[in-house]
Specification:
Helix content: under 10%
Shape: globular
Order of helices and strands: EEEEEEEEEEEE
Strand content: over 45%
Largest sheet: 9 strands, antiparallel
Distance between the termini: 49 Å
Number of helices: 0
Length: 155
Amino acid sequence: ASALWASTALIGLMYYPVPGVSYGITYQTFGPGITYQAQGKRQSLTYEQQLPQSLKIGTTFRFPSNTNNPTANILLSSELLFGQEKLRNRAGIEIWPWRELALRIGFAEVDSATVLRAGFGFLTQNLQFDYAYFPLSLHERYHQISFGILVGRLF
């Protein structure tokens, strides 16, 4: 049996210059990294690797723009991975069929390939849950789960 676990944290700021448009910046990965554990009948293996730190900038366009509850969003972002000195770009569409549920689809650059990502999210008063699925190849697939606590605006 084997298992692969990773946890990270991020901190970020959002700026809302006009209704319907927002800009954001995040600094990510000051967590423990990835731990791979494999257990056989005679021996076990544990391997740990620190995740690269990253700086991500992005923008969101909300439709309709004159409401706090948009029905669709277009998201664009670029991420700089420290130590690798290259940008990873992402683009996606988010549809809100109900106030608490978001459906997402988009593309992300991973290494030298562009991969399709899909997922959904739930949003309550102060809590957020997100799930994303993205295959990198026929045999390599990732599931990403995140939880968030919405603190509020500082300014």
